[in-house]
Design a protein that fits this description.
The chain is an alpha/beta fold. It has one domain: 3-Layer(aba) Sandwich (Rossmann fold), CATH 3.40.50. It is 28% helix and 25% strand. Helix 4 links the parallel strand 6 and strand 7. Helix 1 crosses helix 3 and helix 4 crosses helix 8.
Length: 273
């Protein structure tokens, strides 16, 4: 085990003995789910050795351990981002903690801009694949974790769950979208010309996060599910200027729909781990 991960894990184990079955990384404005957990223990991320501090509004900065439907979970209430100045290894540090704990399944969520003209703010998109336009990769450098040097990414978002997740959404009266997530570094939003390029290249929604964590989770052998909360139209699709306030406000409006879908995934899929 990496020394830094080991020190972080020792600190966490001094605060909780819970053995989570799955991990959930909560995106901008979506952190409320962590506060619904039963028997929760909130550990401030700033106190965990070597853990990068989140500096973005809507990302509170806690690891929250607890149970939902009696299933033990680790939720990340406040991710860190590449654009904050962290390396991708720092951004994905929490996934390595999950790996050390023994977590085998990860749900990643984010707020994203709608690029596909059939999508609109308030929709939830099941991520079926991604395009990494960060021009970086968390696996670059020394191989420290014993996994393959060249991991296969053909099934990064576990396809065997797609139909089951869509049925869960139908049961919750949610019209779930499917699409490809395009991720660039930010923190500036894309230009209208860039959005046109993304659409031509096959992107359905744009974000500034998620891909590093997914690459690391796949490298660690985890099953991965990804959800995007579409909080705004991408630049050029709407005449309205983009703001982070709009992102968090829209995420709050769809909170109940999002919570219902996450709850269904936990009860129907994570219960099997």
């Amino acid at each position: 085990m990496n020394t830094k991960v080991g020190e972080a894990l020792n600190f966490i184990n001094s605060h909780t003995s819970l053995q989570p079955k799955a991990g959930i990384i909560l995106g901008s404005g979506l952190g409320a789910f962590a506060d619904t957990l039963d028997d929760k223990i909130k550990i401030p991320a700033a106190q965990i050795p070597h853990y990068p501090k989140s500096t973005v509004e809507g990302h509170e900065g806690f690891l929250v351990f607890g149970k939902h439907k009696n299933i033990p979970l680790l939720t990340v209430q406040g991710r860190t981002h590449y654009y904050e100045g962290y390396t991708q290894k720092e951004v994905t540090f929490v996934v390595r903690i999950m790996q050390a704990i023994g977590i085998k399944a990860l749900l990643v969520t984010n707020a994203a801009g709608a690029i596909n003209p059939r999508f609109k703010p308030g929709d939830i998109m099941l991520i079926t694949d991604h395009v990494n336009f960060l021009f970086d990769n968390p696996l670059i450098g020394k191989a420290e974790f014993g996994e393959p040097r060249f991991p296969d990414m053909s099934n990064a978002y576990t396809q065997e769950y797609f139909n089951q997740i869509e049925q869960i959404a139908l049961d919750c009266n949610i019209a779930l979208r499917r699409g490809v997530l395009w991720v660039s570094s930010g923190p500036s939003y894309e230009t209208a010309a860039e959005v046109k390029m993304i659409r031509k290249f096959g992107g359905d929604a744009g974000s500034m996060s998620t891909v590093p964590e997914v690459i690391t989770a796949v490298h660690a052998g985890m099953k991965v599910i990804g959800l995007s909360c579409l909080t705004n139209y991408a630049t050029g699709i709407s005449s309205q200027k983009l703001s982070h306030k709009e992102v968090t406000e829209t995420a709050d409006l769809v909170k109940e729909k999002f919570l219902a879908l996450v709850s269904g995934i936990i009860g129907n899929i994570f219960s099997g781990f």
